[in-house]
Amino acid sequence: MPSFVDRVVLHLAAGNGGHGCVSVHREKFKPLGGPDGGNGGRGGDVVLVVDPNTTTLLDYHRRPHRRAGNGTGGEGGHRHGADGADVVLKVPDGTAVSRPDGEVIADLVGAGTKLVIAHGGRGGLGNAALASPRRKAPGFALLGEPGDQLDVVLELKSVADVGLVGFPSAGKSSLIAAVSAARPKIADYPFTTLAPNLGVVEAGDVRFTIADVPGLIEGASEGRGLGHTFLRHVERCAALAHVVDCATLEPGRDPISDIDVIEAELERYGGLADRPRVAVLNKVDIPEGRELADFVRDDIRARGWPVFEVSATSRDGLRELMFELAGIVSAARAAAEPAEPTRIVLRPRAVDDGGFTVTKEHTPDGYRFRVRGTKPERWVHQTDFGNDEAVGYLADRLARLGVEDELFKAGAEPGDEVVIGGENAVVFDWEPTIQAGAEQLGPRGTDSRLE
C-alpha cells in the first residue's frame, strides 16, 4: 500500500432529506385538532476543508466512498426531524478539485478554506406546514429531497516556493536534508525518492518552502519513470532549481545535457516557462565534480541563470544558494497581487425569468416536451405519487408556476408525453384539464380531478 497519494477519485453522496409527516391531532373533547405533522430534517452536506496537518490523500485512496447522514422524518405533534450529520473531509493545502471530465471546481489553498462539494437534500414539509384556508387538513406530506451525488477528482499540488528538479540521484534529497529539518530517505540508487518532500528554509528574515520533486528522466511528461506523476507539484513554485550531478559515472551524462533533457520535459508539461531558473552544480566536494563544474559554469551562465557550486555533504555554497532563492521568492511575493476580501455578489433573477424551460424533443416514436428547472424538478422528487391529493397539489404548483401555459405555447396537446427533469425524470401524459382549484378536493388523501 502506498504511503503517499496525490490523486484520488472520490465518490460522494450527500444526505437525503427526511420525509414530512401526515398526522392529525387527536385528543378527547377536541375533535377538530387539525394537522400536526412535522417537517423532515435536512440531509447532511459533504464539506472539504484545508487542514495544515494533512499532507497526503492516502485516506481517501483507501476509502473513496463517503456519504453524509440522512435527515430523519417528521412526527406528529409538530415534531420536526433531526438534520443529518455533515461529513467533513480534511485535505492538504494546495488541493485542486475537479470533475472526472477535467472541469475545475475549486482550488483549495490556505488553511481553513472550505468548500461544500455536495449539498444535502431539503426535508419534506409535514401536513401542518401545508395547511391553508382552502386545504385545512391535508392528507399528504412532501417527501425529502435526495442529496447530491457526484464523483470528484482531488489532485494535490504542493504549495512550495522553490522546486528542485533533476535526474534521479542528483542529490536533491540530500540538499533538502542539509538546508532544512526535513529528513527524506537517501540512498545511492535511482528513484530513492518516491514522493515529494517539503522542507522549510530560513535565509535571513525570509522563510520559504522548498520541494524535492522525484527524479525526472527523458520522457517523464509522457509517462516514463516517476516524474510524470509529480510534475504537478512544481506548478505553484515561484522558482525552479536545476540540481545537477557533477560526479555522475553514467556514460553519456553531463550537466548541460541533463539540463536540456529536464527543460524539454518541463516545456512539454507546459505552464512553467515564466519561472526563474537557478543552476545548482552539486557534489563539488569530489575532485572530479569540481573539475566538471568549472568546465560547464560559463555555458550555463550564458543562459542567464545564476550558477551555484554546492555540496550537500560539506555544505559548501549552500548559504549563498539559499539567500539567492530567498531573494527570488521575496520578489515573487512582492509582485503578487494582494488578496482581496471575498465579495458577496447579488445576482437577482430577471423579471421575465420563470425559473424553468420547456423544450420540444424529437424521439423515434414522435416527440415529447421536457420541462427543466430547479423548482419543478424539486417538486417532482418531493411528491408521493401514491397519494392522489399529493399529485393534485403538484399539479396546482406547476400551474401556478406557469408550466401549463408554457406547454400550450410550445404546442403541446392533451395526451402528449411530458418529461420533468433530466436523469431519474418523471414521465406522464399531459392532461391540461387538471387546473388549480383546491375547492374541488374530495376526502382527505384524494383529489377528484384525477379520477
Automatic annotation (TrEMBL):
| Entry keyword Translocase | no
Q: Name one Pfam family in it.
A: MMR_HSR1
Q: Which domain of life is it from?
A: Bacteria
Q: Where is this protein found?
A: Cytoplasm
Q: Which GO terms describe its molecular function?
A: GTP binding; GTPase activity; magnesium ion binding
Residues recorded as binding GTP, renumbered to this chain, are: 166-173, 191-195, 212-215, 282-285, 311-313
User: In what residue span(s) does the Obg domain sit?
Assistant: 2-159
Domain named OBG-type G: residues: 160-330
Its EC number(s): 3.6.5.-
Cofactor (UniProt): Mg(2+)
What enzyme category does the UniProt record give?
hydrolase
Q: Which family does it belong to?
A: Belongs to the TRAFAC class OBG-HflX-like GTPase superfamily. OBG GTPase family.
Question: In its UniProt entry, what is this protein called?
Answer: GTPase Obg
- What is the originating organism of this protein? Phytoactinopolyspora halophila
The uppermost taxa in this organism's lineage are: Bacteria, Bacillati, Actinomycetota, Actinomycetes, Jiangellales
